[in-house]
Structure formats: structure tokens, C-alpha cells
Amino acid sequence: MMLSPTPHYYQIMGRAAEIARAVGSSFGDAEHLFLGMLHDGGWPMNVISRMVDPGRAEAAVLAILNGPGYSPPPRPRFPRREGYVRLWGAEVATEMGDSYLGVEHAFLAMIRRPETVPARALAGLADLEAVEAAVLRAKNASAAGPPQDAVVLPEGQKMDSPLRQAIASALPDGTTFGFNCDAAGRAWMCVIGPGGPSDAGLARQVLNTALASLHRRTIDN
């Protein structure tokens, strides 16, 4: 079964193609895709940013790319078009029983292969098993539906990239967040601590701080 990448995945792929060209590669691979994720700052980077500083992660990747032993990705047999970025994560999505190909699947596939640039870069900054566990925990919390302590975004608001980045910046130390849509299509989020979802009051505070930083309508008004 062919899995279709999510719109977010396509967005990251476009950024990865730009990054690949900027560093002198005609084709994108794991390293460029990971840099695209870091620049986006959304899911699943909003999870690992609580464990690894994104700036340090990017610096580690660039150090490998600029090192003497690095070779740009070879030209793939198919397709041959410029701007091609290799898809990652199909086997992970299939293993999880998901019917789509998401950025989280690509990220997990990359860090599970120690020879990839993202795995090598992150291995010097964090425990890769702990990073994977954190991503899976956040994914499972979102997939299970809104927990009791979730808060719904104000009507008309979308969980877009600027809001995801603003939420990540507003989170207390040691926490991350999950988000999804309920059966009615309303976007929701919850703050996740070491023991699971935190209280709704904290989620409301984090969301309102993020919305206010973007000059958007908060929950309370």
C-alpha cells in the first residue's frame, strides 16, 4: 500500500530541497530533511526541543556536512528531477499501522539508523532511545483523542507552524505537548509531563501565552 505524505511532510520536503541546494547537493536526504524539521520547529521537533537544543542539533549536523568524510547523497535512479528529496518513514508508518506518512515516521526512521547524519548528530547530544520514547509518548497521547486535561483552540484558530513554535517556547521545563482534532474537527492541545498529560489550567496558560505572543485571540476573550 502506498502511503501519502501529510501536508506537513510535503512542507518539510520543500524546505529540505532548498537546504540541499544551499549546501551544494542536487538531491535531498535524511540530513536535509532533518534540518528542514529543525527550521520548522513543529511536530515532532516540539517534543525533542525539550531534550536537545535545536541550535546545537543544527550545528552538529552542519559540522558533519562540512567535515572531510561527508559525501553528498548520490543521484537516485528515479526520479531524476532537481529538488528531489528521499522519502523516509514508510516502514515505520506501516509498522505502527498508520494510513499516512507523517514527519514523525520519517524522524523515527532516521534516528533508528545509526549511520544517518541525524542519528550521528543527535547521538552526541541525547540518548536516542529516550528521544524516540518521548516522540512515541506524545504521538500516542494525541492519537488517543483529547484527554480530560486538553484545551480546545478558540474558534477559527489552526494549529499551524507559528502557533506550534510559540507553544513550544511557552512550555515549562520538562514538558512537551500533544495536539490533534476532535470528532467535530476542533483543534485541541494538552501539556504532557513526565507522568502524562498535565492539568488543563497549565495547558490553558501555555496556549494563551502562545496565542498572545502571536497577537491572536486567546481562550479567555
How would you explain this protein's 3D organization?
This protein has 2 domains: 7-142, Orthogonal Bundle (Double Clp-N motif); 144-213, no CATH class. Strands 1, 2, 3 and 4 form a 4-stranded antiparallel β-sheet that branches. Helices cover 48% and strands 8% of the residues. It has 221 residues and is of the alpha+beta class. The protein is globular, with a radius of gyration of 18 Å. Helix 1 crosses helix 2 (30-40) and helix 4 (54-65) packs across helix 7 (117-123).
List keywords for this structure.
4-stranded antiparallel sheet; 10 helices; 2 domains; alpha+beta; Double Clp-N motif; 221 residues; globular
In short:
The chain contains ten helices and four strands, in the order ααααααααβαβββα.
